[in-house]
Amino acid sequence: MKAVIIGAGMGGMSAAIALKQLGFDVEVYEQVTENKPVGAAISVWSNGVKCLNHLGLEEETAALGGIVETMSYIDGHTGETMCRFSMQPLIDEVGQRPYPIARAELQLMLMNAYGFDDINFGMKMVSVEDGPDAATVHFADGTSASGDIVIGADGAKSLTREYVLGGPVTRRYAGYVNFNGLVATDPAIGPSTEWTTYVGDGKRVSVMPVAGDRFYFFFDVPMPEGQPFERGTAREVLTKEFDGWAPGVQTLIEKLDPATTNRVEILDLDPFDTWVKGRVAVLGDAAHNTTPDIGQGGCSAMEDAVALQFAFRDHPDDVYAALADYQAARAERAGDLVLRARKRCDVTHAKDPEKTAQWYSELREEDGTNIIRGIVGNIVGGPVT
Asked: Cβ–Cβ contacts within 10 Å for residue 232, how many?
């Protein structure tokens, strides 16, 4: 059985490794010419870590992951601790520690596990077609590739998705911009084993540890879509947006590198149920473009990969039955995570200021129980328990 995978992101590479484990002949095609992921890091929650462990990457994942012992919310203006609690009850309940991981390092780990030199870079897909015996992808350079299946892990702007759904879909702007990057850990910003989040005015500033004594940081700023921005000016923008905020936030703004700080307009996609057309299927952001508000976009892509493997394990000789099983296993679960993230996004970013004010009040009474319950609700339900 041969699989052609379009996209060498987290979902595509996870799927490539998963199908290789079944003995598939796998070809991976990626339009970029080098490994340059968008975004500095990713929180790989326990469900995602379990998928990576299943793919044989337990030691490598743990080596890249930051250790988060506690979680806190801080009043962005006063610097007062609203709540702080241990992550151990979460780990005990789900049986796996989560790991924040630098995105480029996670990506490289997956590429190396598959075989970096076997990835076809610089290959831009222009069309895909299905046939009775094979599906075929055509590339901008005039070449093509055929396989028993084509998996479109070609991201949020997926061309494969257009083919599967019969036309384009419009992504929804979530109402905020995310600035993110990596910075050396500093106790003036937050404890080195804590996920620290400053909140106020519908804005959010967060730091969490990744390997190498670094924090992954991000700033969420509600603003209209399409605002002009010149790369390298993040410090000026953030200094203005977070004027008067707590000392930890000011230290972070001083310490970040404006040249490497990313700015991403956050969008998502309404869930849809059709992931498969003939021998062609979508996976990852192509299937469930999600806001990062519950940290489940990448984890969901990893779940897709394992579910795809299980579907072909159960139907090794029937492409159509396997892809039908894959769709049935994933569409509802992934769509639920998109909507959970959207709901969390709206509260965090003050779409309804009264609800956000209520959330801030609740944080001051929080002992961790409710937050951990919500996170566990996101984690459970995937293919690897």
From this structure: 12
